[in-house]
Specification:
28 strands, Proliferating Cell Nuclear Antigen, 3 domains, DNA Polymerase III, Chain A, domain 2, alpha+beta, homodimer
């Protein structure tokens, strides 16, 4: 195996494929990065037990030779030092040579690195690229959808199903729902056409965060397919497969109140800043719970921290309709929601001091955030 | 006690005075920030057992009233939340009111914070501002001097004296020397006049780092005085006092070889990059030791990491005079030195494989860095 490659292309794709690789893997070979070279492309593969990422570097991009002097082959290289080596090489061209003992020489300018590689024979086989696309999603939409839901997944392994995002495809509507049982976030987008049966699966939150990290908005669409309890996302030069979580995601519709006693309309930025100030004097170990109370059109927020002090502030809502409210909530959850909702104005629907309240935006009927108040008395 | 103050002036000075304050202090009152107000100024004082910093905000700066509605007094406020409160306040003006129970109300716009303050009667008395200056140093020179030496202090408490920087004033020459017994850094500047006797003291490295952080290059000079085993640095609006370390700093002159067998002149950037590359495959737990060897005008650097691989690279020196060399050194120490020496070209003087080598620059005869080679065979 031998090739010369433009360093910046290698560095970019390396960074995409390498981040999920862990030295603490149960399958030792997975602690390395697999490089597979043929006349058309170099494929970098990184994997842990849950996620596999493949990043491809084409031999030629827009008529420019990115990879030259190709002798096809494959190798698995040690990971922790690799990005540092590639990033610090002195010249734009990097020269790789792998000998029959898997010893890999990486040359650039007068710098010569020799790494002990391993045979790729032991590396688990993947054939991600042969899957037929069953669903196509606009990348900007998907990234926004991930960002607007994944923050609400549970970080506790006590109910593993809640560490994932529930993806439902039904009647050309794709819905992501995440909840940690104290809050819920849901986003729906329309899908023009697809080749999937009715789908109700749970994707690990970490896999979606990783997908959001590696997906490049320069690509327009990502292709999605389901196969053997795996979901596969692919663009022209990138493939990410993730295992699905086993088990049934609870029906979350019944959690969402259909009526409300109070509707509050506020400017998001003003409201965020007021809540951030109150959160300064709230208890971090208890999710920064703060109090809210309304009187006519006025919102009062307050919080206290034992032995330190207290804070209160008021703000005129754009409008408040219905009963006055008085309850407590996690300012962290509220800020997470308000900061991902992408709107200048939100409507908050309250149904009583111990019932979940809902945050929506007039801009986008397809996003819903729900937060359960906290009992503080 | 009562006043209104411009928020940005308070925020800036708060950040200077507050960082050294620790919640783990043996004197409970020192976990708070002292505010002292008179008609001319607000003085913020933060302290731990080693360092005290006072930052002053004048009532009026260049004809502009910074502090108004002054009712003099003093208070000690809880620290951890204070910067967050001041930074997040909604308006430019902050209104402080302290009642007879030390409860402090901080208002800005519609935000109202109430903090439980403490009487300042218990706060240790300081009279930093009444000291007579004994030595005046240009701030840029002092900051550079700190930066060029303090990195070499020891971080181990096994020989406490080496956690400090030795300051010697002799014949109108001010010298800082730091060493952790594996390396040494020394810088001398000329002092035009001073009122100190011959001085040989040891200032904790942490105090100098803190001084470097808070000193503002907009001020031209810092005044220095010594009093009761304390050193006091002051500018118009800032005072830092630090305890001195007890004990005698060893005479480091005898460590510095007077002759050399080999003199190597190199371009600093090329040399840094080559060493950084070699350091990628060196052992972090062993100070990233790498090997150097010369042949005629050629420098060869190499390193290896067990089970991962090895690296080697060569570079033409500007010149090498004397015996060829072959030794090992900590790339971390070398990079620390090369990066603080502020020169495009350095001269390195070697005296044999197990004797310290010295790094100097033709630009500045008053800086000297010394590194002890490592025995690797």
């Amino acid at each position: 195996m031998q090739f010369k490659i433009q360093r910046r292309h290698l560095a970019k794709r390396l960074q995409q494929a390498i981040q999920i690789i862990s030295s603490k893997t149960v399958i030792p070979i997975l602690s390395g990065l697999k490089l597979e070279l043929n006349e058309q492309e170099l494929i970098l593969t990184g994997s842990n037990s849950d996620i596999t990422i493949q990043a491809k570097i084409p031999q030629n991009i827009d008529g420019e030779d990115i990879i030259t002097n190709i002798q096809p082959g494959s190798i698995v290289l040690p990971v922790p030092q690799l990005p540092d080596i590639i990033n610090k090489l002195p010249e734009d061209i990097v020269d790789f040579t792998v000998d029959e003992n898997y010893k890999t020489v990486i040359k650039s300018g007068k710098a010569v690195f020799r790494l002990y590689g391993q045979s790729s024979d032991e590396y688990p086989k993947l054939s991600l690229q042969q899957n037929k696309s069953q669903l196509s999603i606009n990348i900007k939409d998907l990234k926004k959808m991930i960002r607007q839901t994944v923050f609400a997944v549970s970080t506790m392994e006590t109910r593993p199903i809640f560490t994932g995002v529930n993806m439902i495809l039904e009647n050309n509507q794709l819905t992501f729902t995440a909840t940690d049982s104290h809050r819920l976030s849901r986003k729906t987008i329309a899908i023009e056409e697809h080749q999937l049966d009715q789908t109700n699966i749970v994707i690990p939150g970490k896999s979606l965060q990783e997908l959001n990290r590696v997906l490049d908005e320069k690509d327009e669409h990502v292709q999605v397919s389901l196969l053997n309890n795996q979901i596969i996302f692919s663009t022209e030069n990138l493939f990410l497969s993730s295992r699905l979580l086993n088990g049934q995601f609870p029906d979350t519709n019944r959690l969402i109140p259909q009526d409300s006693e109070t509707t509050m309309k506020v400017h998001v930025n003003e409201f965020i800043h007021m809540i951030e100030r109150a959160a300064v004097l709230s208890n971090k170990e208890q999710n920064n719970v703060i109090d809210i109370e309304t009187e006519d059109n006025l919102i009062r927020i307050s919080s206290k921290l034992v032995e330190i002090g207290n804070v209160n502030e008021q703000l005129n809502a754009i409008s408040i309709e219905g009963e006055p409210i008085k309850l407590s909530f996690s300012s962290k959850y509220m800020l997470d929601s308000l900061k991902t909702i992408d709107s200048d104005v939100v409507d908050i629907y309250f149904s009583g001091p111990m019932k979940p309240f809902i945050i929506k935006t007039p801009n986008d009927p397809h996003i819903l955030q729900l937060i359960l108040p906290v009992k503080t008395f």
